[in-house]
Design a protein that fits this description.
8-stranded antiparallel beta sheet, mainly beta, single chain, Jelly Rolls, 1% helix, 2 domains
């Protein structure tokens, strides 16, 4: 390691959970879960393990990722990324109830895409992973209910079965490998297999993805024999540090050996703020480890995740800076933007009015499981400003457009412009436990076709403001509680997103809301060097003009 330089955690701040990593020569690639957001499974590239550029989204076609009626925390769970003999493999689970395919694989020769249509697998459970043995055989490793019968919810087993790469079908017998390290453990999951010094190692998480999340490991001389757990299990956790520690629920790891012989682990964790409230969801962290007596020792001498760490002994790598302000001056959106479920492409255009993102108000709302007109990015910090300039002349009073901060259809805030008679009405709408209420409403003295709308968060206090002239700002509401947007109140597995929104509240609409820009700034200095620029290789296309 180069002790003269320091890396910073999280390496991917915000809603980037369940990281999986692989190395191809001097290049590193990483993917994370996306749940009900589209496109699915962002893929990142790095050469130093610390600075990452997003180069694509693996699941960028509706045929790859059907999300109809998915709950926000359904959709894509725990992808695994692997490389073998010139081909990249991504395997994952789509838990959307309306979807016919559960576990599936997609492949590509270029990690930036395009990726293949899904190869469905006849396999039970979740969290599938792939392992390529020295003889070229491929093995599926996943999580399912105990074959002898689960004694309680979350009483699972890790199992292994050969995968025929020619047919993309599971073949042969399925072998139970391990049930986790502790007696009565819940949710042994997220398995990955590695081979080192004649042993097969099975790395998993257990005890659920919340505060008790922990990493355990076992090994065996054979993939068809039960694995034996390490006597020091769990080898990594923060549950013993208490609820007040600044980094919590550490788990779901994947490991990689560098070309220089160092070993590193990526994992997820969360940063609570204002009490035990995890608004950002689960983020991606990096931690070093070594091998002692045939077993990993995580962050030797410390045993915990830290905000900083010595840089890996790897060449310097620069992540491209993403501007804080998206001006919508190209015909595609930047790769970090997302939609809820599969977007209705006819509702969006970047070409009809150059320099603007035009959105049709949709009958679906953010408080439903439908497909609202919503373009968003992840919240990356507890101190941020999000802003847009909206050009909007609603024809009827049910049409609204503006900016929103969203945890799920059951918990969100919306700052919306609409029409009331011959005046503009601004509304702050709260959805809490599926109940939709108007917290604050202000009627302006005229119909203003152009408005600046702003959301600011400081710790757990939200401020909603507006401007009619782009200069002077007026606060509509402040000290609005953001804690309801945390996993700890709202539940689920996702972090918050912030985005642009237009709705006709259950009715048809022919109106257009035009957004001049989207600005996101925060106190996380790493934000500008983590993602991608507009010249990235793979995009979501807007196929239809309004």
């Amino acid at each position: 390691m180069d002790n003269k330089k320091t890396g910073m955690n999280p390496i991917l701040p915000g809603f980037y959970p369940d990281p999986s990593i692989c190395r191809v020569n001097d290049d590193y690639y990483l993917v994370t879960s996306t749940f009900a957001y589209f496109p699915g499974v962002p893929i990142f590239h790095s050469r130093d393990l610390v600075h990452w550029n997003q180069i694509g989204n693996i699941l960028e076609r509706k045929e790859q990722l059907p999300l109809v009626n998915a709950e926000t925390s359904e959709g894509i769970f725990a992808p695994t990324l692997r490389y073998h003999d010139g081909t990249f493999y991504m395997i994952t689970t789509n838990v959307t109830p309306t979807n016919d395919i559960n576990n599936f694989i997609v492949t590509a020769t270029d990690p930036a895409g395009p990726w293949s249509d899904p190869y469905p697998l006849d396999s039970a459970g979740i969290d599938p992973s792939l392992f390529f043995d020295d003889d070229g055989k491929c093995y599926y490793c996943g999580t399912q209910n105990r074959r002898e019968g689960s004694r309680y919810f979350g009483d699972n087993e890790i199992y292994i079965q050969e995968l025929d790469l020619n047919t993309m079908k599971l073949v042969g017998e399925s072998y139970p490998a391990w049930h986790g390290a502790l007696r009565g453990v819940e949710w042994p999951e997220g398995p990955h297999i590695y081979k080192k010094d004649g042993y097969y190692y099975l790395l998993i998480s257990e005890a659920g993805t919340g505060h008790n999340h922990a990493v355990s490991i076992a090994r065996s001389k054979s993939l068809t024999e039960p694995f034996t757990g390490h006597k020091a299990n769990p080898i990594f956790t923060h549950r013993h540090l208490g609820y007040h520690y600044p980094i919590v629920n550490v788990g779901h790891p994947d490991i990689v050996e560098t070309q220089n012989g160092e070993w590193w682990m990526v994992c997820l964790a969360s940063r609570p703020r204002g009490g035990y409230y995890r608004n950002l969801g689960r983020e991606t962290y990096l931690v070093p480890f070594i091998w002692e007596d045939g077993w990993p020792v995580i962050n030797p001498g410390k045993g915990i995740l830290e905000d900083t760490f010595p840089m890996p002994n790897l060449p310097a790598y620069e992540a491209k800076e993403i501007p804080a302000k998206e001006d919508f001056d190209t015909d595609t959106l930047s790769l970090h933007f997302m939609y809820l479920r599969n977007p209705k492409e006819e509702n969006y255009s970047l070409t009809n009015r150059p320099g603007y993102l035009e959105m049709k108000p949709d009958a679906d709302t953010l408080s439903s499981k439908g497909t609202p007109s919503y373009v968003c990015q992840r919240q990356l910090s507890f101190d941020f400003t999000a802003e847009t300039k909206l050009s909007f002349s609603p024809a009827v009073e049910n049409e609204q457009a503006g900016i929103a901060i969203y945890q799920s259809q059951s918990f969100n805030y919306q700052l919306l412009a609409g029409k009331k008679g011959d005046a503009t009405v601004l509304s702050l709408v709260k959805t809490e436990r599926d109940k939709v209420t108007v917290l604050k409403e202000e009627i302006l003295d005229a119909l203003y076709p152009d408005l600046t709308l702003r959301i600011t968060e400081n710790e757990q206090d939200l401020t909603f403001a507006y401007s009619v002239d782009g200069k002077s700002e007026k606060i509509l509401a402040d000290k609005v509680d953001a804690r309801i947007l945390s996993t700890d109140v709202a539940g689920g597995f996702v972090g918050n997103t912030i985005g642009l929104y237009a709705t006709s509240n259950g009715k048809d609409s022919n109106t257009v809301a035009a957004f001049d820009y989207f600005l996101y700034e925060d106190d996380n200095k790493k934000v500008t060097n983590r993602l991608e620029t507009k010249d990235s290789l793979s995009r979501i296309k807007f196929l239809a003009d309004l």
